[in-house]
Amino acid sequence: MIHIPKAEYARRRKALMAQMEPNSIAILPAAAVAIRNRDVEHVYRQDSDFQYLTGFPEPEAVVVLIPGREYGEYVLFCRERNPERELWDGLRAGQEGAVRDYGADDAFPINDIDDILPGLIEGRDRVYSAMGSHAEFDRHLMEWINSIRSKAHLGAQPPNEFVALDHLLHDMRLYKSAAEVKVMRYAAQVSARAHVRAMQACRAGLHEYSLEAELEYEFRKGGARMPAYGSIVASGRNACILHYQENAAALKNGDLVLIDAGCEIDCYASDITRTFPVSGRFSVEQKAIYELVLKAQQAAFEAIGPGRHWNEAHEATVQVITAGLVELGLLKGDVAQLIEDGAHRAFYMHRAGHWLGMDVHDVGDYKVGGEWRVLEPGMALTVEPGIYIAADNQNVAKKWRGIGVRIEDDVVVTRQGCEILTGDVPRSVAEIEALMAAARAEVA
Ligand code: GLY
Ligand code: MN
Ligand code: MN
After folding, report:
1. 8-state DSSP, 65
2. Is 410 labeled as catalytic in the residue annotation?
């Protein structure tokens, strides 16, 4: 199974500590367990920042980084071994495992954190933490600080500066290493197989959830523990609901089905959208809209590379889509003026993409100093133009209504331009129709 190697976590901690101000400490909690109902928990997903620095998969843990500390810079608080609890809930690393398997220099029971952590903070000038993201943890942190302040008369030195860790960490996360790209490439391949399988399985009379089942089958078979986000399987006019979640309608010949789904591998997301006809053949209008979105996507790929800024890809899609909608008669007027007026937003109301990584909408600033960020090798993003013509849009001829198309792929910026990670799913009308026809011929 492809995963981030242990050495990479050590490299990340080192890189973060190298950027921290002298005499400082960074403190970050693991994700809390989320209760689904009564005794049932949601499947546990580690906090992305915590995972990025530790690879430690358990809840009830806190990572502490203390550059220059004599007895070890990387301290992990985690649950103690407990044979009875482990019998019910699964194995725990314990403090020994934290050191042996996760590279901690020092590990303590999480239950002892109130006694130990203030001592680690004391004497440090600056505390880096994810301020504002974990309300309860922020409260604990203030309690630990206050316990040091209360001993100031005995000579204890509380820190005076509190700094958002996100700023450093999220910039690191924006640049994907070779190991990260490898994991993301694999996640993209598994997701590509899932989309191909859904296209092959698609038949009128099945339901949107039938195709969701095909996706999940491939995700799990590929080793993914879960999708990177709730899968969208939206047929007919449902495709015009951008975050459609019901996935319950019956599939009808004559409709398109839009699938936006991707799996997560070792906490790295993939994010693919394909739109294809339930019958296996696009209608004239569906094909016209589809090919326009595809052309916009191609223009976006060409606008991605080192030295290009973040918004160039989006601008390219707006240009192509606006001009195309005028050509099809869906918009009327001068293309440049329509772009200036944002007329495309009636049909294309989202942006061409987002950063992609451990979070599907990944961290990282899109602007720096008020200017669009310039792309650099290792940055990963999605390219996902779409056109959505609402079923009740009275401004367009009836034949166009209810068509929703999005095409989404994942790319990583390379030295020459970009690498498409999700190229294994057919994209052109001819390729999709051929794949679906072949699947039907096999069954017949
Ligand atoms: N699946 C969420 C997105 O495409 O941004
Ligand atoms: Mn996306
Ligand atoms: Mn998506």
Report:
1. E
2. no
User: How many beta carbons lie within 10 A of that of residue 115, not counting itself?
Assistant: 11
Ligand 1 neighbour 410 (Cβ under 6 A): no
Q: What is the largest CA-CA distance in the chain?
A: 85
Q: What is the pLDDT of residue 23?
A: 96
Domain 175-443 bears CATH identifier 3.90.230.10: yes
Class for domain 6-173, per CATH?
Answer: alpha beta
CA of 268 to the centre of ligand 3 (A): 14
Ligand lying nearest the CA atom of residue 230: 1
Per-residue pLDDT of 102-117, as tens digits, reads 999 999 999 999 999 9
Q: Which residue in this structure is represented by tokens 């504002």?
A: 132
% of the chain residues with pLDDT over 90: 97
Catalytic residue (one of 243, 392, 415, 442): 243
How far is Cα 248 from Cα 244, in angstroms, rounded to an integer?
A: 10
User: What's the chain's average pLDDT?
Assistant: 97
| Average pLDDT over every residue of 357-373 | 97
Check pocket membership of 229 for ligand 1, CB cut-off 6 A: yes
> How close is the Cα of 158 to the center of ligand 2, in Å?
44
Report whether 435 contacts 197 (CB < 8 A): no
Return the SS3 of 129. strand
First to last CA, the chain: 36
**Whether pLDDT at 443 is above 90:** no
Q: Where are the domains of the chain?
A: 6-173, 175-443
Q: Which atom of ligand 1 is nearest to the CA of 350?
A: 5
State yes or no: is 314 an active-site residue: no
The single residue of 49, 180, 266, 271 carrying the catalytic annotation is 271
Q: What tokens were used for 11?
A: 């490299």
Is residue 167 packed enough to be buried (19+ CB in 10 Å), middle (13-18) or exposed (0-12)? exposed
Catalytic residue among 208, 216, 388, 410: 388
Structure tokens at 372: 């669009």
How far does residue 163's CA lie from ligand 1's centre (Å)? Answer: 31
pLDDT at position 406: 98
362 lines ligand 1 (CB under 6 A): no
Active site residue 42: no
Q: Residue 444: is its pLDDT beyond 80?
A: no
Q: What would the pLDDT profile of 209-221 be if each residue is shown by its tens digit?
A: 999 999 999 999 9
